[in-house]
Amino acid sequence: MTTQASPEAITVEALINGQNVKSLSQSAKENPTHPTEIVGYFPDTTKEQAVEAIEVAAVAFKTWKKTDIEERVASMRKAIEKIRAAENEIVNLLSREHGKPLYDAHGEVYVALMWMEFACSEAAAALQEQVTEHDHGKTILSYDPIGVVAAISPWNYPIALSTIKIAPALLAGNTIVLKPSPYAPLAAAKVAEIIASEFPAGVINVVHGGADVGVELTTNPKVTKIAFTGGTETAKHIIKAASDTIKDMTLELGGNDAAIFLESFDVNDERAMRRIVVSNFLTTGQICMIAKRVYVHRSIYDAFVEKYIEAANRWIRIGDPFDPNTTVGPVNNLKQKEYVLSLVEDAKQRGAKVTPLGTILDQKLFDQGYYLQPTLVTGCDAHDRIVVEEQFGPTVPILPFDDEDQVINLHNESIYGLTSSVWGSEAEAISVARQLEAGTTMINTAAVQGLDVRFPFGGFKQSGIGREYGTEGIRTYTEPHVINVPNMLDLPYIPE
User: Fold this and answer.
1) CA dihedral sign of residues 95, 100, 103, 107
2) Rounded distance, CA 411 to CA 382, Å?
3) Residue 223: beta bridge partners?
4) 90: how many CB neighbours lie within 10 A of its CB?
5) CA gyration radius, the chain
6) Could you confirm whether 216 is annotated as catalytic?
7) For 297, phi and psi rounded to 5 degrees?
8) β-strands 464-465, 248-252: how paired?
9) Which residues form the active site (predicted)?
């Protein structure tokens, strides 16, 4: 396949100590809508350059950690305004490199800014030193910065899942080395550069590259915390790599999030049906917290499937991300497309029914890009691959269940536990939600539609370690430090 650079093609470089650093070689990022078109180039950062970025961050930390919280917040607020001013340019680049429709790319920037603004507004209170005087003396509790943070972000929400790490890490007084995914490196790097322009040199550094760079970020003794969003298998390697130096880690990993529709759910509620369709196929199904398996009470199952197909066919329009009529774009990369196809084909071979959904707006474009028509899978077994594996693409299985205990068990037997949703009467839905093993459970909505950055986000079991967002998402970049000043210097039970 012959590729050609777009007239709008850009080149990003590594950012080390406030300077762009060239590499001897570069990689090209193709446009998933037009795979023969190159959107831009990013560097093959070397291991030596990664070491330099870490060392620079370690030096910058010595000064940055001493700055007042007011100074850190002021710098972050200036960065927020710069991102907002450049939003259209950022969204254009994100849509071309990722395949997100424009509305979706704007939505990602909106979420990123919403979190950054919340972090700025809450950082002073979250990091406030606490002094407690008591019968035994005085205790001081401070939240001290950890040091150099290695942040590794994924390709599905590259901006939001980079800033979810950058903002709290810097506000807490740390420095950071960011490595964006090679599947979506350009917009994330540009946003990181915008933020870096408001901070001292070395506080934010950006590297790219392959496995050797990733290994350096996860093993270098000067890195004290790893913040990673991505696949569970990759996380297992990161945990092993970081074990020799016992690094602090925040890992937000995979999810096979279930949506449970109780007997009390109204299948004729068109707005609710639209919400579940969006929860399945927003960002072409490539969101960690999207609803990936749907369980429906058997008494409403047939009517639900019928109404679901109607709602999906109304909302899903597959086309060019720059076409305002498009709601679903291409899959981000060929590897992911082939994986999703393998799951659908496996379901077919096992006797499941696969129903195509939505309208293809431009068949020629569809055929040349990394497109998949969204599909609904029915008649599958609860333990088929398409049910138990995280599809991360535009397909969803819908299965019937007979009672609450059964569906709760089906939900909880998964190795994942990121988010979930329960649909039906509020009291009944909350009762079921309390029994689910998940970091977040939403009632009568799901996925990004129910996200609230004011509260912690993360998962049970193999969906991750730690929490992001909320006050916890700020303090996770600190170490609680207790200073005790006792007034009883001799304990009564210790002999003279």
Assistant:
1) negative
2) 10
3) 148
4) 24
5) 24
6) no
7) -55, 135
8) antiparallel
9) 252
In 3D, which of 391, 394, 412, 438 has the Cα closest to residue 284?
394
Structure tokens of 51?
Answer: 């070491």
Q: How many CB atoms lie within 10 A of CB 404?
A: 17
Closest CA to 459 of 434, 436, 475, 476: 436
Q: Which residue has the tokens 């994924």?
A: 154
**Could you tell me which CATH class the domain 4-253+463-482 is placed in?**
alpha beta
376 and 354 Cβ atoms separated by less than 8 Å: yes
pLDDT at site 493: 84
Report the C-alpha gap between 243 and 48 in whole angstroms.
22
Full DSSP string of 461-483: ETTEES-BSHHHHHHTTEEEEEE
Helices vs strands, H then E, count in the chain:
16, 25
Specify whether the CB–CB gap between 304 and 296 falls below 8 A.
Answer: yes
The active-site residue out of 108, 122, 252, 390 is: 252
Spans of all domains in the chain: 4-253+463-482, 257-450
Residue for token pair 């979250």: 126
**Two tokens at 408?**
């709760």
Q: At 272, which amino acid appears?
A: A
CA angle 249, 254, 256 (to 5 degrees): 145
pLDDT tens column, 177-219: 999 999 999 999 999 999 999 999 999 999 999 999 999 999 9
First to last CA, the chain: 85
**Banded pLDDT at 414 (limits 50, 70, 90):** very high
CATH architecture, domain 257-450:
3-Layer(aba) Sandwich (3.40)
